[in-house]
Every structure is written in C-alpha cells, then in structure tokens.
Write a structure and sequence with these properties.
five-stranded mixed sheet; 25 helices; alpha+beta; five-stranded antiparallel sheet; 49% helix
C-alpha cells in the first residue's frame, strides 16, 4: 500500500494499492519535489468518474507504467470534490492547450507548482489521437532533463494564460438587473434547446439545471419557454438517465436521446433537479410526471444517500463488478426470473424497452419509457391509472431484487456545498408537496432538510462563521470554500422561509458576514474561492463561472440580496452584491457560464418582492404564510419572505422598490397585493 491508504478521501483510498508511489497534496510531496528538483505529476479525479477508473486500471495499476512514474516524477493524487481550488486552477491548463476540460485531469508541474503540460485521459497505447501514457512520460522526462529552458518558458506562458483566463469577462458593459436582461438570457438559452429531444445541444447531454432555472424564471415572467422546458423535463424523466426503479438521475447521457447515461449518480445533480421539478410541478400541475419525479427522488435520497447523522453522501459509481451499468440494466430472462411470470415480464419489457438484443452493452437493456404512459395505456386499451397500478408492484419486485446485486461503490464523504444544495431542493419539494395536498411528503422532505442543516451547523461551521468542507466517517476536515458558505447559507434562508424559524436566517447572515470579511475581492467587486488565510496556491482564484453546479459567486450574491431585502444583512452586503453585478455586466452575453448570477440579479430588480410576516409566533402567521406560498408560483418577480416577532394580530407587509404596504391581516388582501399586476 502507498500513502493514500491513510487518506480521508474515498477516491484517494481507491488508489492505495496502486504500485505508484502516490502522495496526497501537501507539504511532504511538495517539499520532496523542491528538494530533489523533480517534476510533479498531478492526477485529479473523483470516485464516481468512469474514465478515472479506466485510466487507473490501464496505467496506475500497471507495474511498468508505475515504475516510470516513480523514477521520474513526484506523483500527487487529488480528489477534486475535496479540493476544487486545486482542480479549478489546473483545469485551465487543458483549456489553454485547446482541450476540453474534465476528468481524469493529468497535469505536469515544476517543483514550484507551475504547470508545463496537461491533458485528461491518456490511453495505454496510442489511440484517440493521443500518445500512450508511457510515451508521454518518457517524452516529458527527456524534456525536463535536456530542454529545461523550454519547460520554464512553457510554464511561464501557461501561468500568464491562467491569469488572463481568471481576469476575463469582467467588463461592466451591459446590465444584469431587470426584466430585459433576464429575457435576453432566456432567449439565448431557449435557442440552444434541442427541439426534438430537449436539453441543450446534441450529445453528450447534461441536465444543466442552473440554465433551466433561468428559463423557469422567464416563464413565470411572460409565459415563454413552456414548450422547451416541459419537453426537456419529460424527456429526461422518460430516458435512461432517470432511474425508473429507485428514482434519481444519473450525471449525464452520452447520446442525444437521454437513453444511455454514465450511470454515476451525483448528489448535486439530484439536489438541483429535485428543486427544479418541484417548482415545475406547481407551474404545470396537470403534468403528473413532475410530481412523480419529486416523490421518487426524495425517496431515493433518503433510502440510498443519507448518512447516520442526517447529512448526505456525495455520489455512487457507474460500475459494479467491473462493468458499467450492470447494477441498473436488465435482460428479458432476468425480468422473468424475478417477476416469476412470462406475461408480467413481457408486459414490463414492452413498457420499459427491455429487448432481447439489448440497447446497451453485453445484451443488457437500460430501462426507459419509449412512449409516454398515456400513449402506452391507450394502445393497451386501459387507463393510465390501471397501467400504473399494474406496473408499480412489478417495479417494487425488481427494485428488491436489484438491491441483492453487488451495488456500485458509494462515495461516503459528506460535502458541505452539495448538502447545502440539497437542503434547498428538499425545501422546494416540501413546499410543492404542501400545495399538492401531500402533507406527509411535505413533512418528511422538510424534516430531511432540517436534520441535514442541523448537522452541518453543528459539525461543519465554526464559532466565527468559518466552514469546513468534508465529513468522512465523522471526521470533519478541509477548509471550506465560497460555494460551501454560499450554498449552505441559501439552504438556511430557504429553511427560514419554509419554517419561519429565525435561527436559520441568523445562521445564514453569519455565513454571509464571514464571506464578506474573508472571501471578498478588494473593493467588494467579487469573491475569491478560498478564504484569506487558506493555503496559498499559484493563484487565488475568483469564483465566477457556473459549472455542473452554480457558482459560489452567483449564489452568494443571491444570499446577500435576500438578506438585504429582509433587513438583516451584514454591513456592506447590498453594496457588494451590486458591485459584483455591475462588474460582471458582460455576463449577459454568456448565460451558460453565468446563469446563477443572472438569476440572482433579479433579487436586485425594483420588481423584486419581500414579504415580512409579523406576529407573536410562526404558528400565528400560518394562514398568511400559506397564502404567500400559494401565490409564489404565479408571481412574475422574485420573492423573499421573512418572519419578524411582533404583537398579535398577525400581519404581512409587502414591499417593492423601497415602498411597503400597510400591514395586511386578511389573506384575500395579501393575495391581491402579491398577485395583482405582478402575476400571470
């Protein structure tokens, strides 16, 4: 075993038996590189990454390849989910070299951490237009020994390029605040939707929930984008990217039609999509599949991803028993063996596309709905309700049998940021379920959110508002980043709006105060990924662009604006948020990269609404709170809600553009004040 056996990262532990002399990122490895003047081979990945596993099997487990690595490099393994600061810096190397970013990330550094070459996956033999990994190792070893000046020159060029990328897109041209910028961004995104299969572009296809949120906001404003949104949401649900037995979504589909996923399931995807489908279910209550996704995703997260302390694990792998998708796929014979009836197996196979030839590898089939359930029911001469009544027990049997299979590896680390996203997702699910009249689902979803929040505040947040990122087996470690502060703070604000418990709002304000004090760029015009006392890397990266998850910048701006609307923001919060929006005005031309910031900007618009519910207790203002919740899906503008202690009787104050209504004590009057001209 190598040094990674003692790591707290499940991903690093996967490499503990490699013959490679791996180090985790830290002083021991970096000092050895300096002392011996040897280049660093930096390998970045994560536990659910399929091609990370492929490269590990082909190269890192190969003794000859490992011998080359050990002889000529100091080899460092990084879990990008634990250290996004390192990953974000060195991803820029492959972008500068004209390659798409992604994982595995393979970058070669000088002993002082400057990159001089990089790529992603390298094969064991020349293929995919790339040299073999061993060829690359030998070539770079020779370059280091015989052409050191060239290495130094390349390192300086890449470092200059990294600095330019970090400074790019920061002109203040344009505006982000108000209906026109939102409409422009939504129009740009809508034009990129696949008109036949939904989703953005052709293949591969990622859910990209943050961009879909922009379309949802615009739809609430003027009704546009309904067709594109519903097409995307339905095609994702019907496709193989959705787990039709347990619920939840895989990370992405490799094809245009959402059929073949990479089967890893990430907490962040399911957190973001849970909230999106919940909101959509209120916008289009006649589309029953939206509710179904919410119910099943909540059940999946609670059953498969919840840790003993109430917070949630990071991911599950794509592979089991060395075969991608084996855990999730079926053959007709397997269906018949489990269901015990040829008729039931044939019926299920016809509905979910299980074919003797298979639609995936090794003759296996990925479950999917080739036709909408209503079409299938009509073809079979039965009602949709009767179809579902027959399918439900069959799915239950197959799920029970699937749990007897060897499951994919689960990454059991707890990430603060991703749990923050999930708290928001659960709250939105709870608020939607309450509107449907499913009080038990609403209660359970809210309880899951509260338990996760309590655990994070107790174990991940210090007395001064500083935050830790990772919990593995109860051992909380690694300094947190801006996204950890921002996502948790937003989750706490969402909890406050759902429960009216002021403690959640107070905790969110403390996290925002810490971000302003320790992450803000000079002049309050942005935020750094790391705190001012964090480890110094070759650059202190600013948070700017969205990725698979929203940017820390976009969500922190939202948090600051919502706290300001409630009158409980830390000093300087509004000014910092507005400075960020002004500086990033050009973001309107890049909605894919800045969707979260564009969405957050709408809380700074004059149309934004804040409702203060005032009374002696949250229970006393319950009827008014329910009126606000029922009105929210029909409002054009962004809405923030807060509770304030006051004497009876209960009252609500509705504020827009620095003007507030008189106290409203009647639900009808409150509804009229909220909807009126600001609704559809």
């Amino acid at each position: 075993m190598n040094r990674l056996a003692q790591s707290k990262s499940p991903y690093l532990r996967q490499h503990a038996d490699n013959p490679v002399d791996w180090y985790p990122w830290g002083d021991e490895a970096l000092e050895r590189a300096r002392r011996e003047d040897r280049p660093i081979l930096l390998s970045v990945g994560y536990s659910a990454c399929h091609w990370c596993h492929v490269m590990a099997h082909e190269s890192f487990e190969d003794p000859e390849t490992a011998a080359l690595m050990n002889a000529h490099f100091i080899n460092i393994k990084v879990d990008r989910e634990e250290r996004p600061d390192i990953d974000e810096i060195y991803q820029k190397v492959v972008l500068l070299m004209g390659q798409g970013g992604g994982w595995p990330l393979t970058v070669f550094l000088t002993p002082d951490h400057r990159p001089f070459y990089g790529g992603t996956y390298f094969p064991p033999v020349p293929s995919y237009g790339r040299p073999s990994f061993r060829q690359l190792l030998l070539a770079l070893t020779d370059l280091w020994k015989t052409r050191r000046a060239d290495v130094e020159g390349q390192a300086e060029q890449l470092l200059d390029g990294i600095r330019e990328l970090s400074a790019g897109g920061q002109d203040g041209e344009g505006a982000l605040v108000g209906p026109a910028p939102l409409a422009a961004a939504a129009s740009d995104l809508r034009a990129k939707i696949d008109p036949e299969w939904g989703g953005f572009g052709r293949q591969p296809k990622f859910p990209n929930a943050t961009c879909l949120e922009v379309l949802m906001l615009q739809n609430r404003s003027d009704g546009t984008g309904e067709q594109e949104l519903l097409l995307t949401l339905e095609k994702m649900w019907r496709g193989g990217i959705y787990d039709h037995l347990r619920g939840g979504f895989a990370r992405y589909a490799v094809d245009q039609v959402w059929l073949v996923p990479h089967f890893e399931k990430m907490l962040y995807d399911n957190a973001l999509l849970l909230g999106l489908y919940a909101d959509a279910s209120l916008r289009w209550p006649e589309r029953g599949f939206l509710r179904r996704v919410v119910r099943e995703t909540v059940a999946y997260l609670e059953a498969d991803m919840r840790g003993p302390a109430g917070s949630f694990y990071a991911a599950t792998d794509a592979d089991s028993e060395g075969v991608e998708g084996k855990y999730f796929c079926w053959t007709p014979a397997q269906l018949e063996a489990v269901l015990g009836s040829r008729d039931d197996a044939a019926f299920f196979a016809a509905v979910y596309g299980v074919d003797p030839r298979g639609n995936f590898e090794h003759g296996m089939s990925i479950l999917h709905l080739g036709q909408p359930p209503e079409v299938v029911a009509d073809r079979l001469g039965m009602t949709e309700a009767a179809l579902e009544a027959r399918l439900a027990p069959l799915r239950d049997k197959l799920l029970a049998a699937r749990y007897q299979r060897v499951p994919p590896l689960r990454d059991d680390k707890i990430l603060t940021a991703w749990n923050g996203l999930l708290i928001s997702g659960f709250v939105r699910a709870a608020m939607a379920a309450e509107q449907w009249g499913e009080s038990e689902l609403a209660r359970r979803s809210l309880a899951l959110a509260e338990a996760a929040a309590r655990r994070l505040l107790a174990a991940h947040v210090g007395r001064n508002g500083d935050i830790m990122r990772v919990d593995f087996g109860g051992d909380v470690h690694t300094r947190g980043y801006l996204e950890d502060l921002a996502f948790l703070a937003r989750g706490l604000l969402d909890l406050h709006e759902a429960t009216l418990d002021v403690a959640w709002q107070t905790a969110a304000a403390e996290l925002a105060r810490y971000a302003l004090a320790h992450h803000a760029v000079a002049g309050g015009i942005g935020f750094y990924v790391t705190a001012d006392d964090a480890e110094r890397l070759i650059e202190r990266t600013e948070s700017q662009h969205d990725s698979a998850i929203p940017s820390g910048l976009g969500v922190m701006v939202e948090v600051l604006l919502r706290l300001d609307l409630a009158g409980v923001a830390p000093a300087g919060a509004r000014a910092a948020a507005e400075a960020c929006l002004q500086r990033q005005g050009a973001a309107i031309r890049q909605p894919f990269a800045f969707a979260s910031l564009i969405a957050a900007a709408q809380f700074a618009a004059p149309e934004a609404v804040h409702v203060t519910l005032r009374g002696p207790s949250p229970e006393v203002v319950g009827e008014l709170a329910r009126t606000v919740a029922a009105a929210r899906p029909h409002m054009r503008a962004r809405l923030a809600v807060s509770f304030e202690l006051g004497e009876a009787p209960a009252a609500a104050l509705v504020c827009r553009a620095q003007v507030c209504s008189a106290p409203l004590r009647d639900s009808g009057a409150l509804r009229e004040a909220l909807l009126g001209e600001a609704s559809r």
